[in-house]
Amino acid sequence: MFRLTILKTELANLQKVLDQKRAKALEEYSQEITRINKIAGGARTMAEERKYNDEKKIKEKANKRRLSEKAPRACACF
Which family does the record claim for this protein (predicted)? Predict the structure, then answer.
């Protein structure tokens, strides 16, 4: 009977330790996911900005060519 009580106490202590480890691992995982999402969000924003700037440059070139009414020379051979 005395041995059974000790074993139950040890089991309860082990479960408590495992629950703490599980909670700590879950918290670390959550922090890592948050960090990754923050980095990905920044990269996504930079990519969108780069795309916007590239489109803007292309539109400016197209407008410039339309206004000058000259086609660009692709080859100097002709």
Answer: Belongs to the remorin family.
> Which residue is associated with the tokens 């082990």?
14
6-37: pLDDT as tens digits: 999 999 999 999 999 999 999 999 999 999 99
Type of residue numbered 51: K
Residue 9's identity, in one-letter code, is T
Alpha carbons 19 and 16: distance in angstroms, whole number: 5
Between CA 68 and CA 16 the distance in angstroms is: 78
Start-end of H helices in 1-78 = 2-68
Q: Domain of 39?
A: 23-56
Q: State how many domains the chain has.
A: 1
**63 with 69: CB under 8 angstroms?**
no
